[in-house]
Amino acid sequence: MEIPPRSPDGSEKSPQSKELVTSHTGSTLCMSSRSESVWTSASRSKWEIYHKPVIVVSVGAAIFLFGMVITSLSCFLTKNKKVYKMCGPAFLSLGLMLLVCGLVWIPIIRKKQKQRQKSQFLQSLKSFFFNR
């Protein structure tokens, strides 16, 4: 039979049970939940809302332009022509994919913002009528 190791201070509790007793897991989960942003009415700037899709669009456009340059090099340079012909379309497609994903992401965020505003308005109406 295996004897569990004793803690350094001599108490009978194992380190795992001490961790469970002193842990504030419940309060931590409530504070870090994603639904918390729905309840807070702190307004965010346009940059905070749209910075991710703007970055994706910018990177996609840069990669697309790089692919155009590489592809056009295959027309002008004779040395390493096969490499340019292989890499150019790959960068073109990757850049176009990122560009389109970012451009589609922006209307999705706008729609979510409108839905959030509607739900906050309905919540305030509900609380107004039912808290009387």
Automatic annotation (TrEMBL):
Q: How does it sit in the membrane?
A: Multi-pass membrane protein
Question: TM segments?
Answer: 54-78, 90-109
Keyword Transmembrane helix (UniProt)? yes
Q: Which UniProt keywords apply?
A: Membrane, Transmembrane, Transmembrane helix
Principal location class:
membrane
Q: What is the lineage of its organism?
A: Eukaryota, Metazoa, Chordata, Craniata, Vertebrata
What subcellular compartments does it reside in? Membrane
Report the GO terms under cellular component: plasma membrane
Q: What protein does this entry describe?
A: PIRT protein
Q: Which GO terms describe its molecular function?
A: phosphatidylinositol bisphosphate binding; transmembrane transporter binding
Q: Where is this region: Disordered?
A: 1-25
**Alphabetical list of InterPro entries matching this protein:** PIRT
